[in-house]
């Protein structure tokens, strides 16, 4: 927790500074708590990324390569040709300001450079200087800036202060997507060795061990077995997930946080219980043991490199199709990038539910189905015996995670599931959910402890909406379908709305799911007693 | 890219539409300059020709208000002569050829004065 | 203040044309520069659009603003999250004609105690829409100067625009709306501290220029009457490629024409290219169907990740000890 109290943190000054935005000055020392530590040299070396070294943003000299300006200029030129999005977004912005108060970091910090329009101008001003005639001739009057070390430092600060949530893009009349700007700006920063460890270490881990957390295969198996034991304690049912089993019908890929730490592990138990109850023929993989993809926060090449494992493993194991767990940015990659990067997946079959026979035509090419799509279909066909009263000790709201909402559109499936498995479901105010949902404040690799003040600021609009339903409806559980959310929102709630816990949707499914051979359930998957009238304690 | 054909088509359509007046001029040939035909033998209109040419709408508008709203019918011209304010009685007496006189410029510039929504158009052979 | 410089520049430009034409520069301001500007405009726009077209669209990245198409019993948001090309086209057209995204605009306010409220805010949408449509109508109305005979549709537009028959010449509604909307757009840029902070010369100049054009046009129609027959002769001369400058055209006409000339020539090098760009935005004009249909990246790099064989090799002993099946024994 930062030293600042809640009351101090909400004293947000929206008055822009006297100093013009074109004159950069960032005092990293004074702004501790709002930036992330640089990537450790060993991780960059492992990945073969440029300019590995030990450094700190508070250093005067960032030890850049000699020709760093040229590297970035060339990198930008290359990307302008490769990404129409980038070129167009740099050209067409009219600075109407519709995006300004849509960014959670701007709302939480009041820093005008967190307005999406100015975040993009940081790059756009250099683009004008280097690539447009008007910018070259008019210079500063034409909104152009030379790429100086101070400008670069500002890039580092603000492009690692954007969670790529795309909320601004919903409101932009031209669909300018700051996530795209940030992704490509981070690619440029990576070219000269400016990256953050909380992104690069998971990338290095994932490349080597198969998952962001660096869990090696024997530990992977131990973790799963531990969770199987826990699940047996809670339900009396022993599930038997297989690992790296050839010939299974489905490969099930989840974010690694789901088998590593609370509260994700309860979501994982929910998945296992569900698949066991239905007798689905599936396997986990210790090699493709990560659904998430921190490549998304690094570069497109890195996305492809990490994502490679999923199809590679599906092919090796000979499964028919792939089921994916609850994770936000994972689904951005799977939905919008995977097939293009590593497809075609012609060695798989178009996904069909083995239980209901439903063909998931929306995943016909990529052949990967979201577990919420899978479960919603099961419930619709009456294939699950559900006792929502087992969730009566919970009053639940749903947080739409940024990527599933704005880079996929999976809005109704989780809601349908929640309405089926809980009796007390309440929506947050309409401007804070669905496509207008607010970020948790810690996506895109910013969910680290040294960045805590900025996380709490960025998460304030979300926390506000949760507080609203907490006070109005007594909500005490925030459900979501994202592993980063489950980690980041937990901290956010502890700070802003401590009465509310965070969980995945499938944890609540696991609570409500009645299975043959289960013992009388008097606790939920967390071992907490159920509401009155349920279970042995009250019988 | 598959969409390049579509983009180039869209661009071509845009350029073609942007140049619409050029195509129209090419099709219809050079436009004639309107020559309002004056049939009267009178030496001068109510006011000098240049002023009439530029400001006749103001004069008629003022006449309408003065006659309809204040009931006055006599107009004192700049040169001291007086005339009766009447479209059909005064103006059209000298210019009975609406089609060749009024309409010549009005049609050229697509102006549709609403004089004839109340007044009766002079009968003319077309 | 940046805004003052922009207005000063526009006044200066108008003055140059006014006095320049008066001093015998009618051919320059009435013929040469308009031709040059038109060429710059067409070539500039074409070059800009083609440069966008040259850049590839490696990934299908629509911003989804509604429910995806998934299970048959869940109603998809076919416009905000289109799964077909037609849906995406409709989405773009709604963006172009109705400013749909801007219509969503909300206003956030921080209340005491650190509470945010979000309320719908349609002012920017209304102001922007009013300006664009008024400008479109004014633009189309001017076609009467460039065509003989004047197409019926232009007459209809004009009739509608002057529907209330106020004054003579009839006051056009769009003249009022255009000036009012431009005034509003300028006012909000100046009134809102954060907008003032982020606005560049490139934001004020087009507003000042458009206001200059609108005001000079209003002056010409209602106050300092020009001899429109001669103005039309000039215009027809331009479009029939037989340019000639009739005598007796007010210098204010040349000021008006010159400001339009500047706008046309400035267009392709400014933010005004959003007119073309809005059609090409990859977050709006692509269907959200990447899992249904493969999208091909023309330069997809040949990247192979850490392969299973390498992984098994590295963790062989640990895999074996924990009983995870191996490919190689």
Q: Notable features of this structure?
A:
heterotrimer; A: 539 residues; mainly alpha; 5-stranded parallel beta sheet; 3-stranded parallel beta sheet; 5% strand; disordered C terminus; B: 126 residues; two-stranded antiparallel ribbon; 2 strands; elongated
Q: Please, could you describe this protein's structure?
A:
- The complex is a heterotrimer of chains A (539), B (126) and C (329).
- Chain A has 539 residues and is mainly α.
- Chain A has two domains: 6-30 and 50-194, no CATH class; 204-512, no CATH class.
- Helices cover 45% and strands 5% of the residues of chain A.
- In chain A, the strands form two sheets. In chain A, strands 1-3-2-4-5 form a five-stranded parallel beta sheet.
- Chain A starts with 5 loop residues before the first helix and ends in a 27-residue tail after the last helix.
- Chain B starts with a helix and ends in an 18-residue tail after the last helix.
- Chain B has two domains: 1-31; 49-117, no CATH class.
- In chain B, strands 1-2 form a two-stranded antiparallel sheet.
- Helices cover 48% and strands 5% of the residues of chain B.
- The longest helix of chain B has 22 residues, at 49-70.
- Chain B is mostly helical and 126 residues long.
- The model of chain B has no long low-confidence stretch (mean pLDDT 87).
- In chain B, a hairpin with a 5-residue loop joins strand 1 (74-76) and strand 2 (82-84).
- Chain B has helices at 4-18, 20-28, 49-70, 87-94, 102-108, and strands spanning 74-76, 82-84.
- Chain B contains five helices and two strands; from the N terminus they run αααββαα.
- With 329 residues, chain C is mainly alpha-helical.
- Chain C has one domain: Up-down Bundle (Fumarate Reductase Cytochrome B subunit), CATH 1.20.950.20.
- In chain C, 60% of the residues lie in helices and 4% in strands.
- In chain C, helix 7 (173-191) runs antiparallel to helix 9.
- The model of chain C has no long low-confidence stretch (mean pLDDT 94).
- Classes of the chains: A mainly alpha (539), B mainly alpha (126), C mainly alpha (329).
- Chains A and C meet through helix 1, helix 3, helix 4, helix 6 and helix 9 of A and helix 1, strand 1, strand 2, helix 8 and helix 9 of C.
């Amino acid at each position: 927790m930062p030293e600042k109290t809640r009351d101090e943190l909400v004293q947000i000054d929206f008055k822009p500074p006297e100093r013009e935005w074109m004159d950069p000055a960032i005092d990293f020392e004074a702004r501790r708590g709002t930036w992330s530590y640089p990537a450790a040299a060993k991780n960059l070396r492992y990945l073969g990324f440029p300019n590995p070294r030990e450094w700190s943003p508070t250093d005067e000299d960032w030890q850049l390569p000699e020709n760093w300006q040229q590297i970035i200029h060339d990198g930008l030129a290359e990307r302008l040709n490769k990404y129409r999005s980038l070129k167009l977004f740099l050209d067409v912005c009219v600075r109407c300001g519709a995006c300004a108060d849509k960014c959670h970091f701007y709302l939480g910090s009041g820093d005008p450079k967190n307005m999406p329009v100015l975040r993009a101008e940081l790059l756009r001003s250099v683009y004008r200087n280097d690539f447009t005639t008007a910018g070259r001739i008019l210079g500063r009057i034409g909104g152009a800036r030379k790429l100086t070390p101070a400008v670069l430092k500002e890039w580092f600060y603000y492009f690692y202060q954007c969670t790529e949530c795309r909320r601004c893009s919903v409101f932009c009349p031209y669909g300018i997507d700051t996530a795209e700007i940030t992704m490509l700006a981070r690619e440029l920063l990576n070219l000269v060795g400016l990256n953050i460890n909380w992104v690069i270490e998971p990338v290095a881990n994932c490349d080597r061990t198969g998952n962001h957390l660096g869990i090696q295969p024997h530990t992977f198996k131990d973790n799963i077995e531990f969770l199987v034991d826990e699940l047996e304690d809670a339900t009396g049912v022993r599930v038997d997930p297989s690992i790296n089993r050839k010939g299974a019908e489905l490969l099930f890929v989840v974010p690694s946080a789901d088998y590593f730490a609370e509260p994700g592990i309860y979501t994982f138990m929910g998945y296992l219980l569900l698949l066991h109850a239905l007798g689905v023929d599936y396997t986990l993989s210790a090699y493709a043991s990560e659904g998430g993809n921190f490549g998304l926060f690094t570069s497109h090449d890195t996305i492809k490199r990490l994502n490679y494992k999923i199809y590679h493993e599906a092919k090796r194991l000979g499964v028919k199709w792939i089921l994916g767990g609850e994770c936000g940015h994972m689904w951005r990659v799977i939905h919008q990038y995977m097939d293009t990067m590593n497809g075609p997946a012609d060695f798989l079959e178009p996904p069909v539910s083995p239980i209901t026979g439903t063909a998931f035509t929306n995943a016909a090419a990529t052949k990967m189905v979201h577990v919420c799509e899978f479960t919603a279909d099961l419930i619709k066909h009456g294939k699950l015996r559900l006792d929502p009263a087992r969730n009566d000790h919970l009053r639940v709201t749903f947080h739409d995670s940024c990527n599933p909402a704005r880079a996929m559109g999976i809005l109704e499936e989780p809601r349908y599931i929640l309405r089926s498995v809980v009796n007390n479901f309440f929506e947050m105010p309409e401007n804070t959910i669905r496509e207008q949902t607010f970020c948790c404040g810690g996506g895109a690799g910013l969910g680290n402890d040294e960045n805590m003040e900025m996380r709490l600021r960025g998460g304030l609009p979300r926390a506000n909406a949760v507080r609203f339903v907490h006070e109005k409806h007594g909500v005490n559980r925030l459900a979501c379908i994202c592993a980063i959310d489950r980690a980041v929102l937990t901290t956010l709630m502890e700070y802003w709305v401590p009465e509310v816990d965070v969980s995945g949707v499938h944890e609540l499914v696991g609570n409500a799911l009645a299975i043959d051979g289960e013992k009388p359930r008097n606790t939920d998957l967390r071992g907490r007693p159920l509401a009155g009238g349920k279970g042995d304690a009250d019988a | 890219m598959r969409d390049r054909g579509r983009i180039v088509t869209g661009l071509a359509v845009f350029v073609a539409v942007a140049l619409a007046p050029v195509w129209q001029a090419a099709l219809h040939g050079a436009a004639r300059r309107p020559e309002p035909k004056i049939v009267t033998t009178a030496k001068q209109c109510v006011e000098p020709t240049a002023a009439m040419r530029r400001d006749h709408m103001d004069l008629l508008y003022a006449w309408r208000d003065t006659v309809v709203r204040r009931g006055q019918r006599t107009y004192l011209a700049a040169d001291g002569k007086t005339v009766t304010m009447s479209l059909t009685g005064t103006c059209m007496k000298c210019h009975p050829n609406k089609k060749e006189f009024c309409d010549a410029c009005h049609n050229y510039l697509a102006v549709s004065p609403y004089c004839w929504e109340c007044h009766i158009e002079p009968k003319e052979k077309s | 203040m940046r805004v003052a410089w922009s207005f000063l520049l526009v006044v200066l430009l108008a003055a140059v044309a006014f006095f320049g034409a008066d001093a015998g520069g009618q051919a320059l301001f009435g013929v040469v520069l308009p031709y040059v500007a038109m060429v710059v405009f067409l070539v500039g726009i074409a070059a800009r659009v083609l440069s966008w077209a040259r850049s590839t669209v490696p990934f299908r990245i629509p911003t989804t603003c509604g429910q995806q198409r998934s299970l048959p019993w869940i109603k998809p948001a076919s416009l905000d999250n289109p799964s077909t090309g037609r849906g995406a086209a409709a989405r773009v057209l709604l963006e172009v004609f109705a400013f749909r995204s801007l219509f969503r605009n909300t206003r956030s306010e921080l209340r005491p105690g650190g509470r945010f409220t979000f309320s719908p805010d349609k002012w920017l949408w209304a102001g922007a829409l009013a300006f664009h449509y008024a400008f479109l109508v004014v633009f189309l109305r001017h076609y009467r100067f460039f065509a003989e005979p004047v197409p019926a549709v232009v007459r209809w537009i004009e009739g509608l625009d002057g529907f209330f028959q106020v004054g003579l010449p009839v006051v056009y509604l769009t003249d009022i709306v255009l000036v009012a909307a431009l005034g509003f757009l300028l006012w909000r840029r100046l009134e809102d501290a954060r907008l003032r902070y982020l606005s560049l010369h490139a934001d004020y100049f087009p507003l000042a220029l458009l206001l200059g054009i609108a005001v000079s046009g209003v002056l010409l129609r209602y106050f300092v009457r020009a001899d429109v027959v001669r103005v039309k002769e000039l215009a027809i001369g331009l479009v029939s490629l037989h340019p000639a400058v009739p005598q007796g055209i007010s210098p204010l006409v040349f000021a008006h024409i010159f400001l339009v000339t500047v706008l046309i020539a400035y267009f392709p090098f400014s933010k005004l290219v959003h007119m073309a760009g809005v059609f090409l935005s990859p977050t709006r004009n692509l269907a959200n169907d990447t899992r249904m249909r493969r999208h091909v990246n023309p330069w997809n790099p040949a990247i192979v990740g850490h392969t299973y064989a390498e992984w098994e090799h590295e963790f062989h002993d640990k895999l074996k000890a924990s009983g995870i099946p191996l490919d190689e024994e």
